Amino acid sequence: MVYLSGLLYNESQQVFRTVFKLKNRTVLHWFPGHMGKGVKDMQKKLKSVDCIVEVHDARIPFSGRNPESFQTVSGLRPHILVYNKRDLANEDLESVIINKHKENGFQNILFTNCKDQKCNGIKRLVPLVQKQILSSHRYNRSENRDYCLMVIGVPNVGKSSLINTLRNKNLLKKNAAHVGAVPGITRSVGEKIKISDDPLIYVLDTPGILSPKVPSVDVGMKLALCATIPDKEVGIELIADYLLFWLNKHSHFGYTDFLGIDNPSDNISEALSVFAVKNNFTMKVLDCEGKRVLRPNLNLAAVRFVDAFRRGIFGKFTLDIDEIHSPNIKSSHKHLIYKRVNVIKG
């Protein structure tokens, strides 16, 4: 079910926040020790790598990508950018995203949905990899008959899922890479995983790597909303507040039906309170007299609200809508420059 009826609300009736303010930005700087070690491990493996496959969340095509670290890793090797989870993003914006990348000279862009093995992006990844490797200098690996890919990206964007999908599709074999719904499942560079016999291709799974410094509150909160930063690091009620802010800002009011509120709200506590009461989300707390009383469980309400967004209950949204239409986005992604652009949708 997708909640859409709230879209009929006249937004002129209410003024919403235009800027999301955060008192403590340090909650957005999540760079645990395994990430720094992961970058070093990835660099050590480069001699055995023919091609880099960068996976990112299609809902945040520009936010949170880590060009500095990935440029260090990729070097001169062919680099393919895969936007995964396209089933949760606004597919109508894909052509605009592609044009933005063309301005930067990105070489290869694919859109995938790892839940669907019939997805065109999944089908064409192996042929594209083979084509790019054959047209590049393999240096010390020129005599090797097998190809080796390194899959990189920020946490929880589907790197391991992509590897498993390719393995299942091409070899009809069970999963080899560990996956999970929270970031940080893969914490080190793994062993080679075969994903194809013809051509013979192996893949190295890697830990998700974030930038040590998040450039803005919006970027950090979008990363958190897409579960790239653990909920516990940011706070689920804060993430829910940003979701409410973003939906209001872009006039997506279908959430009112889901929360059971009459009109759009800019107060997350009030909205979650109504939602909690109507769904009997309660918790026992001590009042001023030391007695246990029932109160609305706002934390559980926030979890359900954010989870609904992550499952696409409110619709397919690309959170970077402002960046997509901004003429200045080019300058912030100038670190990764390539010569040609090949675009594959599906």
TrEMBL record:
The keyword Cytoplasm does not apply. Keywords: GTP-binding, Membrane, Mitochondrion, Mitochondrion inner membrane, Nucleotide-binding, Transit peptide. GO terms for cellular component: mitochondrial inner membrane. Residues 39-212 form the CP-type G domain. InterPro entries: G_CP_dom, GTP-bd, GTP-bd_ortho_bundle_sf, GTPase_MTG1, P-loop_NTPase. Coiled coil: none annotated. It comes from the Eukaryota. Pfam families: MMR_HSR1. GTP binds at residues 84-87, 156-161, 208. It is a peripheral membrane protein. It is found in: Mitochondrion inner membrane. One of its GO terms (biological process) is mitochondrial translation. Plays a role in the regulation of the mitochondrial ribosome assembly and of translational activity. Displays mitochondrial GTPase activity. This is CP-type G domain-containing protein. It comes from Homalodisca liturata.
